[in-house]
Design a protein that fits this description.
Layout: H1 10-26, H2 35-42, H3 46-62, H4 64-74, H5 77-101, H6 110-120, H7 122-135, H8 143-154, H9 156-172, H10 174-195, H11 200-206, H12 211-220, H13 231-240, H14 242-272, H15 277-293, H16 295-305, H17 307-327, H18 331-359, H19 364-375, H20 378-393, H21 397-400, H22 403-422
Helix pairs in contact: 1-7, 1-8, 1-9, 1-10, 2-3, 3-6, 3-7, 4-5, 4-7, 4-13, 4-19, 5-6, 5-7, 5-10, 7-8, 7-19, 8-16, 8-18, 9-10, 9-15, 11-12, 13-19, 14-15, 14-18, 14-19, 14-20, 14-22, 15-18, 16-17, 16-18, 17-18, 17-22
Length: 428
């Protein structure tokens, strides 16, 4: 046993999870832009179409919870690989179905496409797995930087592909796009299989070393965070920590909000500001990319200033920018406010996952599952609320809908205040 050679480094562990999540998140980017093709071919209602478009995000949210907790027993590579493989199967299934049945033989295929869509969404669920897998590689003082880099770069996929997809669809067509995305995701699966590696403790456990010896040897190599218990224990233990639920609410606002606004902003720019579809898509992509990229410096800032203080600053930005967006009719001011809102969301998303291993060090995977899975549900809850406001107030309602974020930011500022009041002295 003593001759066992460990594999990888923290940097390699981070590279593997970041690339894996980027590929997995990109896998479902086709659904929204190609929704009209499914509607026309199958003759389905708008309600059924809405379910079809939402189903990858639904599985990508719910599966974060059990798969995130699984990291605490396996180290992450196995659940991450399985989720990517299921996503490959889902996207491959849709590609084959379209090749043989589109456009004249699609009637009656709705259930099958819904199933494949559910599988495709598994790539999004890799997020919480990657959080746990990355977290175990790094010491407490570097969690913000590492997790900010992972989530920030991985989250770039929706923004980047919202720019690429319209061009690809225009030049190569609907079915070709699905084939290209299937090949892209399959390559991502192979890359992760090669680069993905578990932290030292899990490698020693896989080599049949005892828990105590594995901890001892991993500590000598620099690992600071260790799991305890089974998948069930990880979920239960993290759920018992009240601050886990505080982090869920914080993440619900800014990651759920990020997903929600990626869907809402095209309508806002088009219907309220009068932008063309292409221009509306461009400014939505700018918001998405900025919110993702700013998670990287946001993580480093959180390491230095503390996750709670970083989150408080972020919520101030969300509050102020949302008030401006709710009232301004100026396109220029609206664009500037959207940029500030992107900064607030990116910074808070980074701060939240700096705090996960701080508050729940023995069940990082379970906590990451709860926070990532339930937090992402904001992407389903927030748009209908904003839509209801728009229905009530007419055109101005597209702006007034941002009051949802004003309320959420105010609630979160109170939560952060309570976290700071109860926070122990942090040792870096």
């Amino acid at each position: 046993m003593d001759t066992f050679q460990v594999k990888g480094t923290p940097k390699r562990g981070l590279l593997g999870t970041t690339l894996g999540f980027f590929f997995g998140f990109a896998a479902v980017s086709l659904y929204g832009p190609t929704a009209v093709n499914f509607k026309e071919a199958m003759g389905i209602s708008s309600t059924l179409l809405g379910l079809l478009v939402a189903i990858p995000s639904l599985s990508g949210s719910l599966l974060r919870i059990p798969f995130g907790a699984w990291v605490d027993t396996t180290g992450g590579k196995k659940p991450f690989f399985i989720l990517l493989l299921l996503s490959v199967i889902g996207l491959g299934g849709i590609t084959l179905l379209l090749h043989f049945s589109y456009p004249n033989h699609m009637h009656g295929m709705y259930g099958l496409i819904l199933f494949f869509g559910f599988l495709s969404g598994c790539g999004i669920a890799t997020f919480s797995v990657g959080i746990g897998q990355t977290s175990y590689w790094y010491p407490q003082k570097e969690q913000g930087k590492a997790l900010g880099t992972y989530a920030g770069l991985g989250n770039l996929a929706p923004g980047i592909f919202s720019l690429i997809l319209p061009l690809y669809l225009a030049h190569y067509g609907f079915i070709s796009a699905y084939l290209a995305w299937f090949i892209f995701l399959f390559i991502g699966l192979l890359i992760y299989a090669k680069l993905g590696v578990n932290a030292y403790y899990f490698q020693f456990r896989d080599a049949k070393m005892s828990i105590d010896k594995s901890r001892e040897k991993a500590k000598k190599l620099g690992q600071e965070i260790f799991p305890s218990g089974s998948v069930k224990d990880s979920l239960i233990n993290s759920a018992k920590v009240k601050n886990t639920w505080a982090l869920v609410v914080l993440y619900f606002t800014t990651f759920g909000g990020f997903i929600a606004l990626t869907a809402w902003f095209p309508t806002y720019w088009n219907q309220f500001q009068g932008f063309s579809g292409v221009k509306a898509g461009l400014f939505t992509a700018i918001f998405s990319i900025l919110a993702s990229l700013l998670r990287v410096p946001g993580g480093s800032f959180a390491d230095k200033a503390g996750g709670e203080r970083m989150s408080l600053l972020a919520m101030v930005l969300v509050l102020l920018s949302s008030i401006v967006l709710a009232f301004t009719q100026s396109a220029v001011i609206g664009i500037l406010a959207a940029i500030v809102l992107a900064a607030g969301m990116g910074f808070n998303n980074a701060a939240v996952f700096k705090l996960v291993p701080h508050y729940v060090p023995q069940s990082v995977g379970g906590a990451a599952g709860w926070v990532g899975g339930l937090g992402a549900f904001g992407g389903f809850v927030i748009p209908p609320l904003m839509g209801a406001i728009a229905d009530s107030y007419g055109k101005i309602g597209y702006a007034r809908g941002f009051f949802v974020f004003v309320l959420l930011a105010a609630i979160n500022m109170f939560i952060i205040y309570r976290l700071l009041k109860s926070k122990p002295v942090e040792k870096n």
